[in-house]
Write a structure and sequence with these properties.
CATH class: Alpha Beta
Helix content: 10-25%
Oligomer: single chain
Shape: globular
CATH topology: Chitinase A, domain 3
CATH superfamily: Transcription elongation factor, GreA/GreB, C-terminal domain
Number of helices: 3
Structural class: alpha/beta
Number of strands: 7
Strand order of the largest sheet: 5-4-3-7-6
CATH architecture: Roll
Radius of gyration: 14 Å
Length: 140
Amino acid sequence: MNAPDIERVLTDLDHVRLTKLAEARSSAPLPAPVLEPLQDLLTDARLVPSREVAKNIVTVNSQLRVRLPGSAEPSQIALCYPNDAELAKGFVSVLSPMGLALLGLSAGQTAQWRGPNGQPISARVEAVVFQPEASGDYVT
């Protein structure tokens, strides 16, 4: 649901791992609100080698500050793989609607997705606080 003019960037490694996650879910398919944005992201994102991704791009295992409309303070979250997700502690699955909307954005851009009841939700990426690739981790 992100605006079509917003460029999304994925590392080669994130692309390969997300593709494998999508394929591995054949026994328990992803719901359409997740599968369609995932397929769009995998098809439309600009791919870059992990060593060349800009430091302000949201990649898997990044920690970022996001601001929801109407919130006084930004929230800090970590974008993770589904097995590590724990929303109450700020660990957001990359395969959730929010995670898919944030992945590949850069600081300053706004993610848009639909909530459980179909309502539009957005969050602005205030900052990428930690990105594995920026710290020299190209394999996690």
